[in-house]
Amino acid sequence: MSREEFNDIELDAIKEVINIGAGNAATAISGLINKKVNMTVPKINILSFDEIFGDLDAEKVVISIGTRILGEIHGSILFILEKNKIDEFSSFYIQIEEKNKVILNIEMFKNMVEIISQYFIKSISKFTGLEVVSSNQEVVQDTLGAILSTTFIELSQFEDKVVDLEIRFLVSEEYEKIIGHLYYIPTTDSLDRILKSLKVR
């Protein structure tokens, strides 16, 4: 199902809910790192399976943090960041020794993504009235295509669509803006249930 099968009201409703979650996550991260954080979701796309592998750079090596969604809706959330952006993302936290850099950077990335995912889930639950919980996170380094394919297979019964959210981070004025992507891969009927609960379908 392509983006054209969703109207602007439906897309705006999803974007608004996610942006509220992003704002709350930014506030939480700001308190954690003692720096002003601005986080926005300027773009939302709903892509079919074929569009995902046709439009994206499926061979790009990325770091993915995956969270399984459980409760009254199901699916997986994948937060994707290019491998070469991990150092920038994690430098928000603390200066670390070079020998421990890779391990600590991944852990810091995981901690920040956990905050982001939890606030997104809370926002969805609050505005839909649906009970939504998350499972433990999984860190994977692989090509984007391999990560998405594995997630589709693990979900077994998934919709032929993925919600692609572009997330932009700006931390203080001393860092460059970092762009990551959050993919919500819903199981059958989960996205439709969210839209109906938001009263836009």
From TrEMBL:
MF (Gene Ontology): hydrolase activity
Q: Which Pfam families match?
A: CheC
Q: Which GO terms describe its biological process?
A: chemotaxis
Q: Which UniProt keywords apply?
A: Chemotaxis, Hydrolase
Q: Which residues form the CheC-like protein domain?
A: 9-46
Q: InterPro entries under this entry?
A: CheC, CheC-like_sf, CheZ_family_phosphatases
- Its recorded name reads Chemotaxis protein CheC
